[in-house]
TrEMBL record:
Record EC number: 3.5.4.2
Function: Catalyzes the hydrolytic deamination of adenine to hypoxanthine. Plays an important role in the purine salvage pathway and in nitrogen catabolism.
CDD domains (UniProt xref): ADA
UniProt cross-references to HAMAP family, sorted A to Z: Adenine_deaminase
Catalyzed reaction equations: adenine + H2O + H(+) = hypoxanthine + NH4(+)
Co-factor: note: Binds 1 zinc ion per subunit.
GO biological process: adenine catabolic process; hypoxanthine salvage; nucleotide metabolic process
Necessary cofactors: Zn(2+)
Annotated catalytic residues: E197 (proton donor)
Sequence similarity: Belongs to the metallo-dependent hydrolases superfamily. Adenosine and AMP deaminases family. Adenine deaminase type 2 subfamily.
Feature type site, description Important for catalytic activity: H218
Organism: Tamaricihabitans halophyticus
Protein name: Adenine deaminase
Molecular functions (GO terms): adenine deaminase activity; zinc ion binding
């Protein structure tokens, strides 16, 4: 489903994309060859055929396995450059990019390799597309591991804009990470967290109250709690919604069943994002095209959603104004 040229012309920010989730099957094979990493698949087609997910965990298993091919600074730089090029072609003028350092340090790749590689790509991106990095803690690892990761990132604070929380959600409530988020905020970092993707509305509330986050990643299950919806509307807390991801991970049987129209009718500050585009069938422009075609979101609303993404970004107001 290619992003329509019209949609690609709308200036937008992408606020919810995991750089490891932009690792296309072709690049898995290229990097495996470059780094002599054995693969369990014989071809790109065979790998892609495994991308049939039933839930978040079934995706995460293959997402983490594929990362084995990412070893050097150059690998991380190539990965991020490829994403930035594709995103720019779909109208992304600014990206706030998640990365999962623990998924690399636990297999022996130093955090400096990850951050320096990604930063090099951000620095070398085309001048019309800016980018920032958000370090995510894996919530299915311990709070102590998250704190160690934050400490290891301290020499690189000028290379990251914030911290987030991702990975398997149910059974790993945000409140377990209160201390590390407090420490991150003290260091001047912005904060976001995945909540209400598969987990209950209570996790969204905890992300707001315990972690003090500026944005909620996903947040779709907030709709189950009218009081929480009221709060999200009144406080205009941005939700980074990922329509194709939600369908691919079994949240909805198809895109026509997605609750995006309800989120919009409730007056919430919604943005549209790709999450893990190499796995879920499209980049951010493809997500815009899909909601236009399959959810009948009118063009005027697409512009509003793009404007929301710029307003919900961590860009200084002056640059936001220039993009609007
Ligand atoms: N890591 C990468 N993609 C994710 C998602 N959709 N939810 C939680 N963690 C993730
Ligand atoms: Zn995500």
């Amino acid at each position: 489903m290619p992003s329509e040229p019209g949609i690609s012309r709308i200036p937008k920010a992408e606020l919810h994309v995991h750089i490891e989730g932009t690792l296309e099957p072709e690049m898995v094979f290229d990097l495996a060859a470059r780094n002599q990493v054995p693969l369990a698949y014989d071809s790109v087609d065979e790998l892609r055929a495994r991308y049939r997910f039933t839930d978040l965990q079934s995706f995460l298993d293959i997402y983490y396995a594929n990362m084995a091919v990412l070893r050097t600074e150059r690998d991380f730089a190539d990965l991020a450059s490829a994403y930035l090029t594709r995103a720019a072609a779909q109208g992304v003028r600014h990206a706030e990019i998640f990365f999962d350092p623990q998924a690399h340090t636990r297999r022996g790749v130093p955090i400096a390799t990850v951050i320096n590689g990604l930063s090099a790509a951000v620095r070398d991106a085309a001048p019309e597309t800016s980018a920032e990095l958000i370090l995510c803690f894996l919530r299915d690892e311990s709070a102590e591991s998250a704190m160690e990761t934050l400490r290891a990132a301290e020499p690189h604070l000028d290379q990251i804009i914030g911290v987030g929380l991702d990975s398997a959600e149910v059974g790993y409530p945000p409140a377990g990470f209160t201390e590390v988020f407090r420490q991150a905020a003290k260091l001047g970092l912005r904060t976001v967290a995945h909540a209400g993707e598969e987990g209950p509305p209570e996790y969204v509330r905890q992300a707001l109250d315990e972690l003090g986050v500026h944005r909620i990643d996903h947040g779709i299950r907030a709709l189950e709690d009218a009081e929480l919806v009221r709060r999200l509307r009144i406080e205009q807390i941005p939700l980074t919604v990922c329509p194709l991801s939600n369908v691919r991970l079994g949240g909805f049987p198809d895109l026509a069943a997605h609750t995006l129209p309800r989120l919009l009718d409730e007056g919430l500050l919604v943005t549209i994002n790709s999450d893990d585009p190499a796995y879920f069938g499209g980049y951010v422009g493809d997500n815009f095209a899909a909601i236009h075609e399959q959810l009948a979101i009118p063009e005027a609303r697409l512009y509003e959603l793009a404007t929301n993404s710029i307003r919900a970004s961590f860009l200084p107001h002056e640059r936001q104004r220039r993009l609007l």
